[in-house]
Design goal:
This protein is mainly alpha-helical. The chain has one domain. Helices cover 82% and strands 0% of the residues.
């Protein structure tokens, strides 16, 4: 029976040792990965987004042609008619140019909004991925530490059981088992 106990203790000790070293390896790998952990550099895919402003350019060209036509037509008129014609024609031209300019500003603003939204989405997605990776590495490290602790605890329990079994055997033989000498 004593040989079976010794074999069981030996197997238990080997198992606890293997578990301890596996936990140490797992913990070491996680620590190595954690030390190499770097956040990705963020880039905005919409950064170079350029809205099409062709319609506004055509409006400006048309306004320039209209202005030139008003000036040409007004040259054949007397001063009062020319001034009235030019005031009306240039007013319409200015309105056309202001609409084109306003449209350009609106498109640029919308493009800026798309760029910012893309930046926010990208940051959120990458940060979520990185946090999941970081949590996984920390969990791996914790699991390794727990394996080591469990192995030490198992080995301690096994040693305590062996000691108690030895004390029980010695007590059955009438021998003292006190660490501090004979009981008083």
């Amino acid at each position: 029976m004593a040989i079976m106990s010794a074999i069981g203790m030996g197997i238990g000790a080997v198992g606890a040792g293997v578990q301890f070293f596996q936990g140490a390896k797992m913990k070491r790998e996680a620590e190595a990965k954690l030390s190499q952990f770097r956040h990705q550099e963020l880039t905005n895919l919409a950064e170079n987004l350029k809205p099409s402003l062709e319609a506004e350019r055509q409006m400006q060209v048309a306004a320039s042609k209209q202005r030139a036509a008003v000036v040409d037509v007004s040259q054949g008129m007397d001063a009062a008619q020319a001034m009235g014609m030019m005031a009306m024609g240039l007013g319409q031209t200015q309105d056309m140019e202001m609409k084109a300019f306003s449209s350009m500003l609106d498109k640029e603003y919308q493009a800026d909004q798309v760029r910012v939204q893309e930046e926010q989405n990208m940051r959120a997605m990458i940060e979520k991925r990185k946090m999941e990776e970081l949590q996984s590495l920390k969990a791996q490290k914790m699991a390794g530490s727990q394996m080591q602790t469990s192995a030490i605890k198992d080995l301690g329990s096994m040693a305590l059981s062996a000691g108690l079994a030895s004390d029980k055997t010695k007590a059955a033989e009438g021998m003292t088992t006190s660490l501090f000498g004979k009981a008083g």
